[in-house]
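anyone seen this seq b4? input:
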Amino acid sequence: MTEKSKKRITMVREHPRHVPLSRKNPDGLTIVDQHPRRLKGTYLDSVEIESVFEGYDRKNLVWPKAGILKKYKNADKYDEIIAIWTDYFNKKFDVNPPLDPDAVKALIASESGFRLDPLENKVAFGIAQITKGTLKILQDPAGEAKEFTFDKIRQKDLRDPSIAIPMAARWLFRKRDTAESKLGRAPNAEELILEYKGLLKSRSQYKEKALKKFREDYAALKKK
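predicted toks r here
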């Protein structure tokens, strides 16, 4: 484990905890097993998400382009959320090139058409179509996204764009890492979105269909 990750996550040692008297614990004590403890500044819960959004410095913020994706109802409704959380994680992870807010917007368009829960399925949820598996990973302080996680986010919370969009943005940075590992270089926007969709190295015929909407909408947003 690197020194950096040591500072982000610590292991809580076994320790006693006071509990009500019972046959099992006649002395009023129980032993709490070792478990990872998240350190402040390395995760977000719903309260902190709201606090960051409300207090965020909007000066020089790069917004996704508005007034372009007119085929979608509410296409520009979430631009402020996209702009803030794209900027937040660009600064958090300091990547080059930075994540483009237009790419995040086009991703959401391709996943849900900006509808809050478009498919009503049991696999992926909300405006960013985050799966149960991804939700679990993003909240595991010892998992693959342990450098920055979320806490106490429920499956039903993914229907709230103010929660789903920051989670999707964070997941894109994780997918950037995995895509770079597979490609041996930084992924372009299309490759990143394919990795988000789990299709970067897929030979499935669905691959082109899954990318079609993103490609069209992202090209429209980037057109001068």
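The longest strand covers residues 9-12. Residues 40-222 form a domain with the Lysozyme fold (CATH 1.10.530). kinda curious what u guys think
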